[in-house]
Fold this protein.
Amino acid sequence: MAITKNGSTYSQGAASVNSTTWTSGSFAIASGTNRVLVVSVMVSSTSALTVPSATGLKWGGSGGTALTKVGYQQDAPDYVEVSLWYLIAPTVQTSTLYLTSADTMDACAVVATVWDGAAQSTPFSGFAGNYASWAYDHDVTVSSATDSLVIDAIMTAHTIVCQQTQDALVYAGALNLGQSHKAGAASVVMNWIYDSCSHAIGAASLAPYVGGGGDHINIALAVGGS
């Protein structure tokens, strides 16, 4: 079963949050077959002593259902973290995302997409991350499979251009959060270019639903690049 996008992409960024919690605006999730909610998250810290960490994300507000954190990449010099999260079979409703952080957030951003035809037990594998203080190419390489889909999340301090299918590019103060996707293959490079700036990028492979009581799982190594 092919993985296809269900509905439109939701994105929102916020500056000067000054809190360890944040609630997004409302958006709708529609019904779909074997759906998975995927959310890219960016958090930056108000402290020059602490690298921030997103500790929780829920669909349905503060009392909603918790998402699972696939992986994260921190940019320590700039006190920023990007991460990927997922929720299998999210509730069909119009609601909000509720984000929590270990540290007071200066800025944060989310990009949310729903995918039909995705694995329903272990949807993601092969997370890889990379960061650099200054670079023109912002990329990471993920091991995947031809029937899968690679999804990335990237933070940069300057404007960037996506080299695969862009889902969103949202601004949060002086920072940008981008998400994109690309068809799976044995090795997939996720690349954003344009300006020399700091960045943090993470990506993983989303496996398709195969039925028959099991899911296809990509068992592979992944390496980052810059």
